[in-house]
Write a structure and sequence with these properties.
The chain has helices spanning 15-27, 67-80, 122-131, 143-152, and strands at 3-10, 36-37, 41-43, 54-62, 95-101, 106-107, 112-113. The chain has 158 residues and is α+β, with helices and mostly antiparallel strands. It has a single domain (3-157), classed as 7,8-Dihydro-6-hydroxymethylpterin-pyrophosphokinase HPPK (Alpha-Beta Plaits, 2-Layer Sandwich), CATH 3.30.70. It binds 7,8-dihydro-7,7-dimethyl-6-hydroxypterin.
């Protein structure tokens, strides 16, 4: 059964509680006993829109659900927790992104796995490394190398 990784993010309406509720909802999608959740991190908002800091984390679990069924369930949980897409790159009560689905590479109009933005985002990579420090992506890149690169991108060489 595939091991999947899901990124969680929230910056409205008690973000920590949003993540707690989302983890409860995720446990219903997971094979019993397989759900793991990283520590929660506060992170500055990425993007141009002025908005509150985020709380971010990553969860992993094994599931019998097929990728698109899992995506449907993640979107249902987002909606049940009041998600409204008001502004692109704007604040949200809950964002659930399917990062990895086993070793699969998926490129369909609805779903791209590995998730398109994960490789540059420290708020995804660091909690992912908490759960799976030795992880290698389906494209053979090591997670540790991506973390080094994302730190490098913060520094301007003189
Ligand atoms: N910024 C942070 N720090 N965390 C997020 O989860 C997050 N999610 C987003 C955008 C608006 C890109 N910025 C974010 O969707």
């Amino acid at each position: 059964m595939p091991l999947v990784f899901v990124a969680l993010g929230a910056n409205l309406e008690q973000p920590k509680q949003q993540l707690d509720s989302a983890c409860q909802a995720l446990s219903a999608l997971a094979q019993p006993g397989t759900l793991r959740v990283s520590p929660y991190y506060r992170s500055a908002p990425m993007g141009e829109v002025e908005q509150p800091d985020y709380v971010n984390a990553v969860a992993s679990f094994q599931t019998e659900l097929a990728p698109l069924t899992l995506l449907d369930e993640l979107q249902r949980i987002e909606l049940e927790q009041g998600r409204q897409r008001l502004v692109r790159w704007g604040p949200r009560t809950l964002d659930l992104d399917l990062l990895l689905y086993g070793d699969e590479i998926i490129n369909t109009p609805r779903l791209t796995v590995p998730h398109y933005g994960m490789k540059q985002r420290a708020f995804v990579l660091v909690p992912l490394a908490d759960l799976a420090p030795d992880l290698q992506l389906p494209c053979q890149t090591r997670l540790a190398a991506l973390i080094t690169q994302s730190m490098r991108n913060e520094l301007i060489p003189l």
